[in-house]
Amino acid sequence: MDIASAHVKGYLVEHTANTPQQLRRANMATILAVLRRSGAANGTDLIDATGLARATVIAVCDDLIKAGWVQELPAQKPSTGVQKGRPARVFEFDARAGFVVGLDIGMAKTTAVVADLKGAILAKNTVAFAAMGVRADSPAPRFTVIDQAICAALADAGAVPGEVLAAGVGIAAPVDRAGNIPSGQPMWKTFDTGIKDELQRRHGWPVLMGNDANLAALAEAWMGVGAGVQDLAVMLAGERIGFGLMESGRLLRGARGRAGEVGSLELLDGVGTPDGIARLARDLGAQTETAELTQFPSAEQVFDAAARGDAAAAKILTTIAVRLGRVIAVVATFTDPELVVIGGAVAASSAVLLEALEAELANFLPSPPRVAVSPLGDSIVSLGAVRLALDHVQEHVLELVPGGGGMRGRNSRQME
């Protein structure tokens, strides 16, 4: 937060709160936001950043220390000159006042990531359902595996379930604003297993559901090559084509959570199916026998062979680029992204697609978007789920209890 905008925010807090309690809560939220972004700060730093009076700043910091959100560091002594009065008190947002969990639940595996309240990633754990003898149509055993993955990641992070303040969950299906999965495709319903209710019942956490491509867009805008880009499209390089779309820094969901699903591709000449990069590379590679390619290659093997100059593999990439170039061109016609990012587990390998893809886009658009590969790898969805959980904590921070324990009651004396 820059000083100018913070001063404006401080001014608005002082002049728009209707009651002393509202004013106090607004000032607490303002100072928490500054400390969360700036690290350690003394009273003068906070006055400069918020425009609040010194007495207000110190009183609010004391309240936040009592509430468990802020810790006081050793006081600062003047570096030069004769010390006058007491050393300046120093305050810091306690990033370990709680934790958040980010989950990526796919058909074949689940990944759990644990982060502190500043977004530092502390642990990650991935478990394949098949390795645990669990089938896709077995919701209860799948949840047992998911919970084991969460608890293992928490243990690795030095945390326990009771310290979690929120969990984000990414699934390969649309999710509306209320966290519901719409009907439309049979595959979508396979993810409608009650995971939100089950996690809330077992652990008492607020649970936020999200579409995997949408969460990939959140992650990319947070810490990927899309950071700072306001108009962004993220396409997961997986089994099916799907986009997470951001316009003016805002995630687009649609009325039923289906924005970016790009269905009905059979109507698009030269495309015909919703197959994604990984599936196309694997299926086309299986139809091509060369010295480089086995009968049933992985997508990575196809990309690696093309990078080494194999002609058959290069032809496969051209075919993929033609198909995806048309899809991206249609999406760009409606959403006009500045940047299109290819993300997911095989994104790094698919970098060999970029040149052909950009050439194909130039055939359809006079000013095509830039295309890049995400550096976040197979963590992109789980990191987006972490971002979703962090956003919830930041929005409801004064209603949550540091260290876990759920939401504060409306009449909690601690917040009066």
From TrEMBL:
SUPFAM superfamilies: Actin-like ATPase domain (SSF53067), Winged helix' DNA-binding domain (SSF46785). Pfam families: ROK (PF00480). CDD domains: ASKHA_ATPase_ROK (cd23763). PANTHER family: BIFUNCTIONAL UDP-N-ACETYLGLUCOSAMINE 2-EPIMERASE_N-ACETYLMANNOSAMINE KINASE (PTHR18964:SF149), ROK (REPRESSOR, ORF, KINASE) FAMILY (PTHR18964). Belongs to the ROK (NagC/XylR) family. This is ROK family transcriptional regulator. It comes from Arthrobacter cryoconiti.
